[in-house]
C-alpha cells in the first residue's frame, strides 16, 4: 500500500511539474507577443526604405477607420492593421481623416501616412 501511495505522490508531482512548465511557456509566448505588438506601435517602421513605392488610395466618406486600415494593409502600405489602428488612436490625427484620393509611399511611417490622410499640411497652410 505504501508503494501505491508513493507512486501517486510521484505522479502528482510529475503532473504539477508539467503544468508549471506549460504555464511558463505560455507566459513566455504571451510576453514576447505583447512586447512585439507594443514595439511595432511605437517604433513606427515603414514597409520599405526610401525611395519606396508610390501607391494610390481612395478614402470615401462612408469608410470606417477599420476599412481604411484594411485597405492600407492590402495595398502593402502597413504591416498590421491592428497596430495601425492603435497608432491612429494614440496619434494627434484621431478623428481627422479626410475623404479623398491620396498617393502614399511604402517608405512612409504610420504617422506620416496619417498626416497625409488628415490633410494636416493643407490645414496648417490655411491657418498661416
Automatic annotation (TrEMBL):
It comes from the Bacteria. Keywords: Cell membrane, Cell wall biogenesis/degradation, Lyase, Membrane, Transmembrane, Transmembrane helix. The keyword Acetylation does not apply. The keyword Nuclease does not apply. InterPro entries: MLTG-like. The chain crosses the membrane at residues 6-29. PANTHER family: ENDOLYTIC MUREIN TRANSGLYCOSYLASE. This is Endolytic transglycosylase MltG.
Amino acid at each position: 500500500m505504501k508503494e501505491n501511495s508513493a507512486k501517486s505522490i510521484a505522479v502528482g508531482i510529475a503532473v504539477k511539474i508539467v503544468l508549471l512548465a506549460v504555464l511558463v511557456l505560455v507566459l513566455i509566448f504571451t510576453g514576447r507577443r505583447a512586447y512585439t505588438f507594443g514595439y511595432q506601435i511605437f517604433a513606427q517602421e515603414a514597409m520599405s526604405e526610401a525611395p519606396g513605392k508610390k501607391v494610390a488610395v481612395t478614402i470615401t466618406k462612408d469608410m470606417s477607420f477599420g476599412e481604411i486600415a484594411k485597405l492600407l494593409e492590402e495595398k502593402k502600405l502597413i504591416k498590421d492593421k491592428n497596430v495601425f489602428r492603435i497608432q491612429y488612436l494614440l496619434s494627434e490625427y484621431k478623428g481627422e481623416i479626410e475623404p479623398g484620393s491620396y498617393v502614399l509611399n511604402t517608405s512612409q511611417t504610420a504617422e506620416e501616412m496619417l498626416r497625409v490622410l488628415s490633410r494636416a499640411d493643407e490645414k496648417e497652410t490655411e491657418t498661416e
